[in-house]
Amino acid sequence: MPADLMPADMTPQLILGQTLTFAANPFLAGPDAARIDPQGGVLIAGGRIVAVGAGAALRAAHPGATVTDYGDALIVPGFVDAHAHYPQTGIIASWGKRLIDWLNTYTFPEEMRFADPAYAARIAGLYLDLLLDHGTTTVCSYCTIHPESVEALFQAAAARGMRVIAGKTCMDRDTAPAGLRDTAQAAYDDSAALIARWHGQGRAGYAITPRFSPTSTPAQLEMLGALWRDNPTCAMQTHLSEQTDEIAWVRSLYPDARDYLDTYEAHGLLGAGAIYGHAIHLDPREIAAMAEAGAAVAHCPTSNTFIGSGLCDVAGLIGAGIPVGLATDTGGGSSFSMLRTMAAAYEVGQLRGRAMHPAELLWLATEGSAAALRLSGTIGRLAVGAEADITVIDLTSTPAIAQRAARANDAWQAIFPTLMMGDDRAIRAVWVAGKPRRAAIVS
């Protein structure tokens, strides 16, 4: 943005380093769709990105900007976690067997504690701080059936300036414990009230949230489908085809449904803005229906391997026209880190015979997740007009990573060791809505 067009009350901030931008989805256009500028810059004003380009040119064009120089660190969009359960923060990395056992043993007892607003507020703040420590600036999260749990997360996000999409989890079937059940009408009424209070306020977005078909009656799914029709700018998040025994369970509960997806589709819960977690064991009809509707998948590789669910065909789903984002699925996932999640996605791809390029992994964690959440251009991108959520990655954060990066022959070889071995130590800085959250070198 030329200096004469910048609002007078905005003092620009210029951050320098290696910058990563995408011209297209590298799964479809190839790795050359990603560009790394070894001496790039990002100019920020008013919480948004106003210019991206060569660092020296931006510095010359904006002599009044405050400059933060990160040297050889990699500047990327803030990571976007497309599927998580913030109430499961305290039970992450709990030993378990299969999904249903894990829910009954760990998840449901912990979620009952969120009826206490003070407990919900404490965990919400802890969770979001953990995300920021790991370079994640946006999350799409499930809450619990308690409206207090939703209020706590949105309040904590507002205090930190973070963009968060979240919703009250709805469960009215006796497959869920009595302390975590609502009713079809309560699910509608509570969710509607939360939408009116939070959706579109600041950086908050609401996601209508049936946990999954086995814990909702058809009546509840019908009510939530009606609520989504009345509020089409909301997201709709749920789970789909995570494990084979789960699919058999759904078939027994919904004997008239064509398949798992049809339990949602028949009740108005398939469409653009739907984000289905996992989606590992899909039939061809389900894939075609999701692509036609514009529905998205949240790929949860650490969870899928930790709970033994299976290997999602990410490249195949993208090739079929389904938007795919990357997700930690905490606490079923075993890490808060999107770097660790990228490493798991690479390993899952290898087991499926499709090695993902580093450009593809970074795209999944940024622009891919943003697209899955219908937020392309708003977050997940270093581009003019995007919100200035930015993560700066130290590519030599540990001795093991540094010695491998020193042998690199190109930028991707220098980046890949951090994607495979990096964690919160690799997060040099985080900017949220144009404000730095972690220490930086200012020149």
Structure, described:
With 443 residues, this protein is α/β, with parallel strands linked by helices. It folds into two domains: 3-78 and 381-436, Urease, subunit C, domain 1; 79-372, Metal-dependent hydrolases (TIM Barrel), CATH 3.20.20. The protein contains 16 helices and 16 strands. It has helices at 26-29, 55-61, 99-112, 117-133, 147-160, 184-198, 218-230, 244-253, 260-265, 284-293, 301-306, 314-319, 338-351, 358-372, 399-405, 411-421; strands at 13-22, 34-45, 48-54, 66-77, 79-85, 136-142, 163-167, 169-170, 204-210, 235-240, 274-278, 296-299, 324-326, 390-393, 427-432, 435-436. The longest helix has 17 residues, at 117-133.
Report the radius of gyration as a whole number of Å. Answer: 21 Å
How many independent structural domains? 2
Major sheet, described briefly? 9 strands, parallel
CATH architectural type of the largest domain: Alpha-Beta Barrel
**Contiguous uncertain segments of 5+ residues:** 1-5
Overall outline: globular
Give the helix level as a range of percent. Answer: 25-40%
Please report the first level of CATH classification, the CATH class of the largest domain.
Alpha Beta
Query: In DSSP terms, counting alpha (H) and pi (I) runs of 4 or more, how many helices?
Result: 16
- Report the span from N to C terminus: 22 Å
Total number of beta strands:
16
Mean pLDDT: 94
Beta-strand fraction estimate: 15-25%
In CATH terms, what is the fold-level topology of the largest domain?
Answer: TIM Barrel
State the fourth-level CATH superfamily of the largest domain. Metal-dependent hydrolases
